[in-house]
Amino acid sequence: MVDQSQVEKVGIPTVTASSDQFTGLAKNTVKSLGLPDMAFVDVAHPMGMISLQEIRARADEAFPKIVQMATNWKPSATAVQKITPAYPAERIKFKGTYEALDKMFYDKGWSIGLPIIPPTPEKVAAMLKGTKRKPDEIVWAVPPRMGQLTVELVAAYGVMARCKPEHMPLLLAVVKALSNPDYDWRGNSTTTAPTNPVIIINGPILDELGIGYSTGALGGEMPVNISVGYFINLVGDIIGGSVPPEIDKSTHGSRGDLVAVVIGENEKLNPWKQSYAVEQGFKPTDNVLTAYSAYMGNINVDHTSVKGEELLNTMAAGLAGAASGVSACMTRFDRSYAVENAVRFAFLFLGPEHADTIYNDFRTKKSASEYLVKKTVLPLWMYAPARCKPPKEFGPYDANTPIPRFTGPEQIRIIVTGGPGKQSQIWPTFPSVTKPVSVLIEK
Hints:
Shape: flat
Order of helices and strands: HEHEHHHEEHHHEHHEHEEHEHHEEEEE
Largest sheet: 4 strands, mixed
Helix content: 25-40%
Low-confidence stretches: 331-342
Number of domains: 3
Strand content: 15-25%
Mean pLDDT: 87
Distance between the termini: 39 Å
Number of strands: 14
Structural class: alpha/beta
Radius of gyration: 24 Å
């Protein structure tokens, strides 16, 4: 869709064939890329996992429509929309109960179904005192709608999510990370997959702001984690316009569509001593935020392993099966998305007790990851057809040959977080060109 729009911009007409379930998303993408309209031909959904006979029948049906559109199509006279300046944000007057205000926000598409704190001018002004950035500064054109997010609106959505002025540097760092092209916000927010923004925080700011990183860090009673996660989804859905059913195409969705995952690393109980942020080249005193897009997490419950190898073996089983059906083997050779060098990642959120067990036998995180790379295998027949074709240099194989999912230790990232208990979690990345993005939280 992006490629066709570039061709259109230089004056070459195109016709785009689209699944009828995704035409709304395609048209929205066109508008977000600066074109009011383009020619589309609907093809019955689904187009994947159907027989060759069905594919040919649909192609035969679509071909005359494509010819017709290519020779007779004209843009809609109502396609051009008036653009409202992003700053200053619109002020409204409202008289009524809080319940009525909350309903009005939802009915107008200004909230996403959870209660909000009304973003009054006074509350937004107080939030803006938490940063030196100018309120009219545009910090992100949020895909897929490409809505303009100003510092003022960061403050407004921060208020709505129950953030405080001292959270503004954290919110702006979140925006900086999510807007990085390596994160691929557009792909992650419009896919059929149940993806979750995941935010990992390191540094003194954890205790300064009361960010949860010990017992129950991913649960309730973690006001900063929850507020920042809620802020992310308000921005993505309202400014970015990524809402179902036309734009956010997630088949089921997930709880992460309401409150994104925000967690701190338990640096105090990390037996390897070196935090994830330090591993990425930052100083121990730096406040660092890492963002990536993940499929929903899966639990590892192991109360009986007493050796590091035993525990990693059970984790390898979970890693191998995570995101089953889409987890291409030997990932850097996966061509199914036409991205030959795409690299999959997985994050392990190790409970401190599990971390201690692994540390006893693996004195570096890298050595633990290297072991997992060797053990995270499945027989070829367990991978989705056509998604696992090892290269020639792999050697001979058949349906029962163990095939690795990962190719290097850098693809398995280890975070120590949470409190007491024999529990850990596996959070695999969304398999697009997305990569983890780490940024400084600048006060």
